[in-house]
Structures are given as C-alpha cells and as structure tokens.
Amino acid sequence: MRTSRPARIGQYTALLAYLVFLAFPFLWLLSTAFKPPREQGSLHPTWIPKDPTLDNFRQAFGEQPLLQAALNSLIAALGAAVIAVLIATPMAYVVARRRTRLAKAVTGWVVVSQAFPFVLLIIPLFLVLKNLGLINSGPGLVLVYVVWALPFALWMLAGYIRAVPPELEEAAAVDGAGRVRTLVSVTAPLLAPGIVATGLFAFITAWNEFFFALVLLKTPEKQTLPVVLTHFIGAEGVADLGPLAAAAFLATLPSLVVFAVIQRRITGGMLTGAVKS
Fold first, then answer.
1. For helices 66-97 and 192-208, what crossing angle results, to 10°?
2. Rounded to whole angstroms, how far apart are CA atoms 255 and 277?
C-alpha cells in the first residue's frame, strides 16, 4: 500500500520536528559549555559562541571530583545491567512459556510495579539496606538499581521470547536437551537483540538515576555523577551555569556513545534473525 506524496511530506516534517525537539536541549547545553560568562548572560544569545573557551571544563574538573563520580556511576550502571539481564532472562522464559495463572499474575505485577513512585519505595529500601549493612555502599546501590530495573527487563525479555518459534525448542527437546540447555543453546542466541536492548535500558536508567543515589550515598567519594552535578548549584539556588553545562555535557556522552555502539548490533541482530535458511 503506497503512501501519497503529501502524506510522506507530512511524515518527514513531523519526524524532523521531533528530531529538532530532541536535539535542542543537547545542542544548547553544548553551546553553553563553551561560552564565557559574559555570553551566558547576554540578552541576545547565540547558538555558536563568539569567543569559545575551555575554562568551564577546567573549572568543572577543578571544583568537583567528576572522574571519580563518573567511575562510580559506570560501576553501578554496568553492574545493575549485567545482573538484571542474568536474572530476568530465565524468569522471562518461564513467564513467556508457562501460560499459568501465576505467570499472568507476575506479568500483571510487573506492569503495576512501574506505577510506584520513588518516594513510596525509598523508606522500605532504606530499612532493608540498613539491616543488611549496605547503606552508603556501591553494592547496596547496585542492588537497588537491579530491583528497580528488573520488572521492566522481565517484561521486555518476555516479549522477545514469545517471538521465538516454540518449534525450535520442541526440536531441541526431541534431541534430548533439557530446559536449561534449550534456553542457553537455542533460545538465548536468538534473544541477542533483546538482551542487548534490555541491558542498554538498565544501564541508561542506572546511569541517569539521581534520587536513590542521593538518599543512599553520603560519602562524597562514593557519590554518582548525577548527585555531583547538583554541587554546581549554590545554597540560594543560583547555578554556576558554565561549569554545570560542561559537566552535564560530559555526563551525557557515555549514554550516547553506548547507544551509538550497541544500536548497530541491535539492528544487525534483528535483521539476522529475520532471515531463515
């Protein structure tokens, strides 16, 4: 069914407007990061700095431990992504293949749990981590991120598993493979795009998370990057705009780089899975 030319023009126009909407904050952040203070407060701001400078970056690294905070965020995000995928994959397999009332209840609980606000969860989580001795620790923060990412990761992977033809698993069972062997050798390789997408979701969610890290981490050396970014805002709410923009720009780069690298594998895996020999 072919689309008319006016419809295609309208689609491309809407897509272009959406891209501009998404790119505007990042481009303005990049522009501000290279502007000197006199241009930041100008009544006639420009996209391209008239006198670009790196002083904002030097000041940002000089005032706050950005490298240590970035390392803390990286460890927490990678740990949460890997653990969430390892736990969610077998759980999603059971939910997708076992059409029981319990599986339906688990799916419903996954959907409902995403509606819980952070404030409702922070007190029980804090008490649990306190009893475990994990307050103000990296493992405790990773545990919280895994718990928060696990429901959506389970829901995502269950959808990918349902797309895998059951006949492949039945053929493996005929050859004598058990459930675990079938999951590892037959289903998991076909789930590569879904596993990568789920891991990417968990990584970005943990990398950008602020509230849990603010409440659970008290030692400056253990704080993550989103928490450290708030230190560029003074007690009266006045932001040190130049260094803040520079630090925020650097904080967005890992997510963009990870997505740019992995999205090719996601697309390639989908195309490979679509071709049957």
1. 140
2. 36
- Judged by DSSP in three states, 160 sits in helix
Compute, in degrees rounded to 10, the torsion defined by CA atoms 234, 237, 238, 243. 60
* pTM (global) more than 0.85: no
Q: Are 155 and 84 in contact (CB under 8 A)?
A: no
In this prediction, residues 79-98 reach a mean pLDDT of 87
**What is the C-alpha to C-alpha distance for residues 72 and 53, in angstroms, rounded to an integer?**
28
The mean pLDDT value for 237-263 works out to 81
- Spatial separation of the C-alpha atoms in residues 16 and 79, rounded to whole Å: 36
CB 218 within 8 A of CB 232: no
Alpha-carbon distances of 2 from 7, 10, 11, 15, rounded to whole Å: 10, 15, 14, 19
Strand partners, 233: 239
For residue 239, the SS3 value is strand
